[in-house]
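User: Just a sanity check before I run the rest of the batch. Below are the structure tokens for the first item. I only need the designed sequence back.
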């Protein structure tokens, strides 16, 4: 019984090797889209927050 465990242990230790995986577009595309959408949301938020105050200011200047 001990010899079976010894052989299985040696085979188990021998089975560990480097695994080379492919980091393809299936993983990179959602991350890239998330980053792009984050920046677009920030730009849209800045434009929305500053559009109406600037518009009111310019209309006030034109009335004078």
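Assistant: Here's the designed sequence for the first item:
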């Amino acid at each position: 019984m001990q010899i079976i465990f010894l052989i299985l242990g040696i085979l188990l230790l021998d089975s560990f090797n480097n695994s080379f995986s492919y980091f393809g577009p299936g993983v990179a595309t959602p991350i890239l889209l998330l980053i792009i959408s984050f920046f677009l949301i920030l730009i849209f938020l800045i434009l929305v927050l500053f559009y109406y105050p600037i518009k009111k200011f310019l209309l006030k200047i034109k009335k004078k």
